[in-house]
Specification:
Blueprint lengths: L4 H16 L7 H18 L4 H16 L1 H8 L7
Length: 81
Amino acid sequence: AVRGAPAIGVAAAMGLAAAMRPFAAEPAATLWPRVAAGAELLRATRPTAVNLGWALDRMLRIADRAPEDIVAALRGEATAI
């Protein structure tokens, strides 16, 4: 159980990253739909949690701007994010 708005946001962001890790070998073009779907699934768990949505939106903005960097980060490679 996670309590507190900031902690819920952090847990959502970390949960999204952890959920995508098994798919890190996929090209960024096929990974992106998984990231978006995973974010929406997490968002649906607590739709009124502002920090949860904020954290997921921030993750999606970063992934949209630099999809190759996100894939590198999931693979454990050096990244500039």
